[in-house]
């Protein structure tokens, strides 16, 4: 890799690492695992950096790689680990933080495939077509998974969904 390409990759990481980390956290609900997922995505991106046709597409490629790494990780871990209650990385203050924590806890219980769709569609604000491309699914499958994922999230939240919405 040439020095210019190396600098371009470093600039990309400096500019986009925080956004990738937030997305990873929303997917997995664990800051440490989020860092691992971002690292895996950046390693894959680095390996392809010189072959990217459009450097502007690097963030999309990284986000797609990150999402797929999360889904692959959940498949590998699905039979072994059981998440337990855990303290947030920073102290919560006020009703907004309480709502956010309740929503994050509920999101952590949503099926990984549905969770990936919900994060990409509603947090990352991706279109149905963009989400479908990232997850390598049809648009219809994304619509269906979004509907089912929201239903699962509502079911998990139960009566507390009204409290969250009222805030």
From TrEMBL:
UniProt keyword DNA-binding, yes or no: yes
- Which keywords does the record carry? DNA-binding, Sigma factor, Transcription, Transcription regulation
Q: Which domain of life is it from?
A: Bacteria
What are the GO MF terms of this UniProt record?
A: DNA binding; sigma factor activity
**Pfam families named in the record:** Sigma70_r2, Sigma70_r4_2
Would the keyword Protein biosynthesis be found if you checked this record's keyword annotation? no
The UniProt record lists the RNA polymerase sigma-70 region domain at 14-78
Q: Domain named RNA polymerase sigma factor 70 region 4 type: which ranges?
A: 101-153
Q: Which GO terms describe its biological process?
A: DNA-templated transcription initiation
So what family is this one in? Answer: Belongs to the sigma-70 factor family. ECF subfamily.
The name on file for this protein is SigE family RNA polymerase sigma factor
